[in-house]
Amino acid sequence: MIAGELRRFLRDHSALRVSRSMRDTAYRVLQAKEKLTARDGREPGVEQIARELGIPRQEVVFAMDAVCEPVSLYEPVFSDGGESATVMDQIGDPRNNDEHWLEQIALTDAMRRLSPREKRILALRFYDGRTQMEVAREVGISQAQVSRLEKNAISQIKKNMSS
């Protein structure tokens, strides 16, 4: 009866819909965790639980994640009386901010304005890492022309991004 109540609680009180098989695995993981804790006097690791149940380590991790309550990114994790720190502050990526997105949008727009030939030359030079001589041979023009087209394309991108 207690096992049935635990299953019902896990099913009915989850913010996310989790498959029955995943919930059952989570229930077995929780039981194994309790059993191993009682036996060894310490909390078992994922590897130990997986061995006990005879399932892959990955399934144990997925099952435990499936029954965890989701946390809001704006959930306060620390407060000093004034401003509080949120989960978002803890996991934020300084390289992925609004300014970066705007620069990426501006760059994409500026690249669209280039001719197909200029795009190809820049792609060969900066994405493929080729020299101007290699690009010249592939495109069928001189190295000086590649240099000139590259310089003009970069100037045009800068101009389009600043406007």
Quick rundown:
Helix content is 67%, strand content 4%. With 163 residues, the chain is mainly alpha-helical.
CATH-level-2 architecture of the largest domain = Orthogonal Bundle
Uncertain runs with pLDDT below 50, 5 residues or more?
none
Inertia-based shape: elongated
What percent of the residues sit in helical stretches (DSSP H or I)? 55-70%
Quaternary assembly? single chain
Sheet/helix structural class: mainly alpha
SSE series: HHHHEEHHHHH
CATH topology of the largest domain: Arc Repressor Mutant, subunit A
Proportion of beta-strand residues? under 5%
Mean pLDDT: 85
CATH class of the largest domain: Mainly Alpha
According to DSSP, the number of beta strands is 2
Task: Annotate the secondary structure layout.
Layout: H1 2-12, H2 20-40, H3 46-53, H4 57-66, E1 76-79, E2 84-86, H5 87-91, H6 98-112, H7 116-127, H8 132-139, H9 143-162
Helix pairs in contact: 1-2, 2-3, 2-4, 3-4, 6-9, 7-9, 8-9
Describe this structure in words.
The protein is mostly helical and 163 residues long. Helix content is 67%, strand content 4%. The protein contains 9 helices and 2 strands, in the order ααααββααααα. The chain has a two-stranded antiparallel sheet. Helix 1 packs across helix 2 and helix 6 crosses helix 9 (143-162).
